[in-house]
Amino acid sequence: MTAFDTTVHLVYLACATLFVAGLHLMNAPATARRGNRLSAAGMLVAIVVTIAVLVEDGGLTAGAVLVLTIGALAGGVAGLVAAQRVRMTAMPQLVSLFNAVGGGAAALIALGDRATGAQAAVTGALDVVIGALTFSGSLIAAGKLAGRVPGRPIVVPGGRILSVLLAVAAAGLAVLGGTGRGTLALAGVAGCALALGVLLTLPIGGADMPVVISLLNACTGTAVAMAGFVLGSTPLIIAGALVGAAGAILTKLMADAMNRSIPAIIAGGYGSGDQVTVAPVPGTAGVRAISAEDAGIQLGYAGKVVIVPGYGLAAAQAQHEVVALAQALTEHGVDVSYAIHPVAGRMPGHMNVLLAEANAPYQQLKDLDESNPAFPGTDVALVVGANDVTNPAARRPGNAVSGMPILDVDKARSVIVIKRSLGHGYAGIDNELYQDPKTAMLFADAKVALTSLLAAVQAYAG
Amino acid sequence: MTPLLMADLTVFTLSVLVGFEVISKVPATLHTPLMSGANAIHGIVLIGVMLLALTVVDGGGYLLLGVAAFFGAANVAGGYAVTDRMLGMFRSRP
């Protein structure tokens, strides 16, 4: 090993250390930004040292330099512009898009690599399959989140059989590719995997998208690690494995929070997507409606208020309104906190980002385990567009939400629910909370309702 | 199994375990930035694309290289930028 090679390896090792340290610093809001910048610094160093490797090698043609430079500059600018412009409510689809291009790049590496031999054949085929599948799957997921592809489960007739056939075809072509047919066979593998990604993601409903994004993220990490095997590049293996682990853990946490098994989610067919225009269902007896004025006065008189934000808040983009209301209540001497269910929003922790964007102090953001013991001492629980995660039916067996961890909103002294109608959530069942005598329903769009609540609180406070 | 593959496999396995260990301590509040930040880390695929440039010979290869470079760079630049923007919003207020 030459001195140059040794130095390069040591620098790569340092970069890997920076990634791990950066991820470690992400365990607290106060240090998370520093962690991300540390990780970015590691990446920058890795890129610079790779440029040095390319120069030292001297094997680059002028054409390759030109193509590489133009492609990377265009991609970098596109990524930065998207990152600057994205609205916080659209964050899940952007993350999914970045995930797609990462998986795509990993697949293209194996397609373009000229290495031969059994080892390159196995990891190369794996790289193409996982990368291409992630690419098309993530694009569909992003489309569903952005509303360009219907959020409801789309079941393709014969889709299961077709999926199995595609998987078999991909495996067959991969074996063929291993015996020396090279690029053409691998391109066939990529085609099968692309179709498979679409077929696997289409039947999954919008409600399960947080888990799917997380799972696809894990897949991209694995694809990048496989690309590292193909190229014999340790930094790719390390970074890919780290991301694979991150995705796997988040997927497990999300699935647990929804009380759903990962195989059941992949099988699809559950999660109806975004139901925003559902007429009030029959059986509204026992439901008590309340005016914004009365609700505002009730909030103003309370000693302790817990706000429960759900998908309805994210969809109405009412995060600024809810924080303004919380702030007015806090200034009025009310103890305010937010109880955040792990699957509120579209991605794990997405609700926290939305509230942080609106400047909610993160000390007020409480997770499920922290919130539930506090509900019995809460005067008013204000539920904004959260349905299934507040349904007491989850405590009983035998229904769609059974066993799902819920926020114990019904244990608060009184409950105000802001909702457009009595329509169902993703699980498609009635929420017993709404029939509870201590529950008052404020039927309105989250943004409108919160604005009038704020006005009422301010009028009351004088 | 070659010694090289053996070494790569070892690195891969240990990295997965390190990843589990580090990431399981991140609170739910930070899960979205964590996912986005992890997403940016797999942008290291750009380095793979750069190494690929050494072996490119024909027109198809150039096309592949250009698209891969675009994808990889968008992933790494956009991923870090958007994570930084998100985390800038997580500040405590007095």
Automatic annotation (TrEMBL), chain A:
E.C. designation(s): 7.1.1.1
TM ranges: 6-26, 38-55, 61-82, 94-112, 118-142, 154-176, 182-204, 236-255
Subcellular location: Cell inner membrane
Catalytic activity reported: NAD(+) + NADPH + H(+)(in) = NADH + NADP(+) + H(+)(out)
Main location: membrane
Gene Ontology annotations for the cellular component aspect, listed alphabetically: plasma membrane
GO molecular function: NADP binding; oxidoreductase activity; proton-translocating NAD(P)+ transhydrogenase activity
Membrane topology: Multi-pass membrane protein
Domain NADP transhydrogenase beta-like: 9-455
Keywords: Cell inner membrane, Cell membrane, Membrane, NAD, NADP, Oxidoreductase, Translocase, Transmembrane, Transmembrane helix
Function: The transhydrogenation between NADH and NADP is coupled to respiration and ATP hydrolysis and functions as a proton pump across the membrane.
PANTHER family: NAD(P) TRANSHYDROGENASE SUBUNIT BETA
Record-stated family: Belongs to the PNT beta subunit family.
Name of the protein this chain belongs to: NAD(P) transhydrogenase subunit beta
TrEMBL record, chain B:
Enzyme Commission numbers on file: 7.1.1.1
Protein name as catalogued: proton-translocating NAD(P)(+) transhydrogenase
GO (cellular component) term, any one: plasma membrane
Annotated localization: Cell inner membrane
Domain NAD(P) transhydrogenase alpha subunit C-terminal span(s) in chain numbering: 9-91
Function comment: The transhydrogenation between NADH and NADP is coupled to respiration and ATP hydrolysis and functions as a proton pump across the membrane.
GO biological process per UniProt: NADPH regeneration
InterPro entries per UniProt: NADP_transhyd_a_C (IPR024605)
Ranges annotated as spanning the membrane: 6-24, 36-56, 62-83
